[in-house]
Amino acid sequence: MELIRVPALNDNYIWVLADNQHQCIIVDPAQADPVLKIITSKKLTPVAILLTHHHNDHTDGVKGLLKVFSTLPVFGPKETIAKGITEQVNEGDNVAIGQFNFQVLALPGHTLGHIGFYQAPYLFCGDTLFSAGCGRIFEGTPEQMFQSIQKIANLPDETLICCAHEYTLSNLKFAHHIWPENMAITQYLTEVTTARAKQQATLPSLLKKERNINIFLQCDNPELQQKLKINIPNPPLRAVFTLLRQLKDQY
After folding, report:
1. Are the C-beta atoms of 61 and 40 separated by less than 8 Å?
2. Is residue 139 classed as helix, strand or coil in its secondary structure?
3. In the chain, which segments carry CATH 3.60.15.10?
4. Which of 33, 27, 9 is nearest to 80 (CA)?
5. Which of 39, 107, 141, 174 has the smallest number of CB atoms closer than 10 Å to its CB?
6. Could you tell me if 42 and 68 are in contact, meaning their C-beta atoms sit under 8 angstroms apart?
7. How far apart are CA 199 and CA 133, in angstroms?
């Protein structure tokens, strides 16, 4: 498989995953034109579009792609019905086309119906988990987002986090603000600052890496809890997560 990162809008990434038969799936097309340019240049044939949630910066390219590929199936949660899906999918469903076989994961929080698509090692998680951070909670609850991130955390170390935005640098700045003594975060902040100055992408990210530099995956860490001034033993992890998310919102 070849994973292709397609920049769009200000900081979006559209993902294209191609097999060795030159067939591909397109994930969260914010725009049609960048995708059409890539698949034309690489002589790829799209076989499906996958949508993680209903926000326009993940769905606005569907219409333009369907003008060119009118019979292309579009898979997504119920909340994307108005965005052009032809196949509604839910937790536990599989999207199987040719060499592609994605497991659908319910990942509510950012939106109520948010889903992810997982085919090892690729996880297309939309706006749920970012590198060094997580998505804002617009429709769901902190409890839902915490559970969604726990579901991702239970995947194998070699999982590639294919999220939809280049937010790594800003997320690391917040993490460093919260936990300046964490050397893994400090070192990666330096690396990413250099990479972004050269306009290099930081995604996809390995889940193994995220376990070390993403504070939203470390709510059980006593040192982090101390930094958050949580002084009770064994606090509820969802409460730690909720506080972190509130602090990030205010940062």
Report:
1. no
2. coil
3. 2-163
4. 27
5. 141
6. no
7. 20
Among candidate residues 78, 69, 248, 66, the one with its CA nearest the CA of residue 170: 248
List, in order, residues 6 or more apart from 175 with CB less than 8 Å away.
Answer: 132, 133, 182, 185, 189, 213, 214, 215
Measured CA to CA, the distance from residue 133 to residue 221 in angstroms comes to 16
- Hey, how many other C-beta atoms are within 10 angstroms of the C-beta on 138? 13
Catalytic positions, please?
53, 55, 57-58, 110, 127, 165
Structure tokens, 19: 């097999």
For residue 147, what are its two tokens? Answer: 């559970």
pLDDT beyond 90 at 87: yes
The answer to whether 50 touches 27, Cβ cutoff 8 Å, is yes
Fold type of domain 2-163: Metallo-beta-lactamase; Chain A (3.60.15)
CA–CA dist 26, 123 (Å, integer)? 13
Phi and psi dihedrals of 201, rounded to 5?
Answer: -80, 155
My answer on whether omega of the bond before 142 falls inside 30° of 0, hence cis, is no
pLDDT bracket for residue 121 (50, 70, 90): very high
Residues 6+ apart with CB under 8 A from 231: none
If one counts every other C-beta atom within 10 angstroms of the C-beta of residue 59, the result is 23
Q: What is the average per-residue pLDDT within 90-109?
A: 97
DSSP per residue, 100-118: EEEEEEE--SSSTT-EEEE
pLDDT band with cut points at 50, 70 and 90 for residue 231 = confident
